[in-house]
Structure formats: C-alpha cells, structure tokens
Amino acid sequence: MPQRLILVAKVKSPHLGSTLREALPVLLDRGWTVIGEPGLEEAWVQAGLDRSRLKIDLNLGASEDPADLCLVLGGDGTLLYAARRVGLRGTPILGINLGSLGFLTAHPVSGAREAVEAFLTGSLVPDVRPMLEAELWRKDFLLTRQTVLNDAVVAKGALARIMDMRLRVGGQDAGPMKADGLIVATPTGSTAYALSAGGPIMYPSLEAFVIAPICPHTLTLRPSVVPASLPISITLEDAEDAHLTLDGQVGHRVLPGDEVRLRRAEARITLLQQPGLDFFALLQQKLHWGDR
C-alpha cells in the first residue's frame, strides 16, 4: 500500500509554489499518495506538479488509518490547525516555516527538500508535546470539547468591562479573580499569548501548565505554573461580553455561570525536529536574546 502524506499549507503564502516544487518530488517519485484541501490545487499546478497526484479531501484523511506524515508548509498558526485536524490521530508532523517567527515550524523554507529527505532517511528526531483538553459547560450541558496544542483563553470583548472569574486547580479554590481574561497554556503555548501576558517560558517537555491572568485588577496576581496532572476549572461569574478562544483559532461565547474545564489530554502531538535542536538557541534566534 502506498505511503500517505497529508499536506497542510498556508495557501496565501507567496513561497508556497516554490516550496512545493522543492519538497514534493522526492515523495512523489517514491509513489507517495498526497492528500490535501481544495485550496492547494492552484499552487500545486503553479509548481508544475501532476494534478492527478493530489487527492482532495475536506476531511484530510479522517476516514482512513493515520497517514505516515503530515507536511505543514506555513507558520505556527498553520501547524496548530494541522495538529488539531491531523496530528491528534497519531500522524507525525514535519513543519516547514514559510513565515518569519516559526517556533513550531522550525525548519527553514530554504531547507525544505533537505528536511523531507532527512525524514525519509529516518534522521529526524520525534519531539512529543503534551496537549490540553478544553470543555465548555453550561449548567449540565457540554457545549464543546476541543484538544489544543497551545492554549485556552477566557477573555472579555473589546468594549466590555473587567471580568469576574473563579479559578479552581486540582479541586482546590484558587480564589476569585478580576481581570480582562485568563490564559491556560501548555509548555508549547508558553511562548505564545501567555508570554505576552508576562508568563514564563517553559521547556517543551515539561508536564505542567501555566496560568496567566490578562491585565489583572490586582497587581499581585501573577502567572503561576501548575502540574499537568491537576485539572483546572474557570467559572465565569460576571461579564458583559466573554469568549473562550482555543489555540487562537476557535472561539465560543461564554455566559455568566458557564464553566471551562481544562485537563491534560490523553493525546500527544509528535513534531519532527532536526537532530541536536537546541531549544535555547531557538529562543535566541526567534526572540533575539542578546541583541542590542
């Protein structure tokens, strides 16, 4: 049976066509089946690839066994989307960065072909990341359940007043909170929104979550790190316009009395990284540590 590739890409990137031209032939020449969403067709043809070799599937192979590889061509947002749609099914993810930051899509676009060849020779290193499962409850009704790689954020709208929330960690009352919102992030998500809110940078393999308030009413309310084994609960007590945002991409309206329940997900995501990848070297590169 041919090996299968799920291709997820930022279709508006000006680098997509050239990257497809560089990275895909090495797989197509080996008989791989390539599965992608409809938006890929134009870039695929522009890259000069055989249109018959691209299988369009809105569900990205969800009805079949897990694919052998998910190739992400884009930025971290594209990879987060792929993690939820494909990575949760156990398919390893190889990210090629077509943007500028790229914490998760760590392979540069200039080395796209080399990264795919490294996968084929088995020289890439699996980097397994913990994930966060989020549930939104209204009374006794489960409104949504989603597993995310980065974070879950309860926050107010642009013109709404400050929110009243109650936080519980591991069944213990962590007290009432007045703030513009609250971020619960995985170690992977600690370099995203939580970092902007003053949270710590966490090593990716840590089994812990960071809880970071957004613009708290009390200045002594600071970000904290808790074991991933402890469930977290956020109950909205009073707010005019509040939303639960998952990985910065999926949003839900939250009403007073609603409860957001968070816990470590059973599923994990596997990213394929370069051998000897130095996390602190990556931080220096992406965050410009040491620059003057």
Automatic annotation (TrEMBL):
<dbReference type="InterPro" id="IPR017437">
    <property type="entry name" value="ATP-NAD_kinase_PpnK-typ_C"/>
</dbReference>
<keyword id="KW-0547">Nucleotide-binding</keyword>
<comment type="function">
    <text>Involved in the regulation of the intracellular balance of NAD and NADP, and is a key enzyme in the biosynthesis of NADP. Catalyzes specifically the phosphorylation on 2'-hydroxyl of the adenosine moiety of NAD to yield NADP.</text>
</comment>
<feature type="binding site">
    <location>
        <position position="178"/>
    </location>
    <ligand>
        <name>NAD(+)</name>
    </ligand>
</feature>
<dbReference type="InterPro" id="IPR002504">
    <property type="entry name" value="NADK"/>
</dbReference>
<feature type="binding site">
    <location>
        <begin position="191"/>
        <end position="196"/>
    </location>
    <ligand>
        <name>NAD(+)</name>
    </ligand>
</feature>
<dbReference type="InterPro" id="IPR017438">
    <property type="entry name" value="ATP-NAD_kinase_N"/>
</dbReference>
<keyword id="KW-0521">NADP</keyword>
<feature type="binding site">
    <location>
        <begin position="150"/>
        <end position="151"/>
    </location>
    <ligand>
        <name>NAD(+)</name>
    </ligand>
</feature>
<feature type="binding site">
    <location>
        <position position="249"/>
    </location>
    <ligand>
        <name>NAD(+)</name>
    </ligand>
</feature>
<dbReference type="InterPro" id="IPR016064">
    <property type="entry name" value="NAD/diacylglycerol_kinase_sf"/>
</dbReference>
<keyword id="KW-0963">Cytoplasm</keyword>
<feature type="binding site">
    <location>
        <position position="180"/>
    </location>
    <ligand>
        <name>NAD(+)</name>
    </ligand>
</feature>
<feature type="active site" description="Proton acceptor">
    <location>
        <position position="76"/>
    </location>
</feature>
<dbReference type="Pfam" id="PF20143">
    <property type="entry name" value="NAD_kinase_C"/>
</dbReference>
<feature type="binding site">
    <location>
        <position position="161"/>
    </location>
    <ligand>
        <name>NAD(+)</name>
    </ligand>
</feature>
<comment type="similarity">
    <text>Belongs to the NAD kinase family.</text>
</comment>
<feature type="binding site">
    <location>
        <begin position="76"/>
        <end position="77"/>
    </location>
    <ligand>
        <name>NAD(+)</name>
    </ligand>
</feature>
<keyword id="KW-0520">NAD</keyword>
<keyword id="KW-0808">Transferase</keyword>
<dbReference type="GO" id="GO:0016301">
    <property type="term" value="F:kinase activity"/>
</dbReference>
<protein>
    <recommendedName>
        <fullName>NAD kinase</fullName>
        <ecNumber>2.7.1.23</ecNumber>
    </recommendedName>
</protein>
<keyword id="KW-0418">Kinase</keyword>
<keyword id="KW-0067">ATP-binding</keyword>
<dbReference type="Pfam" id="PF01513">
    <property type="entry name" value="NAD_kinase"/>
</dbReference>
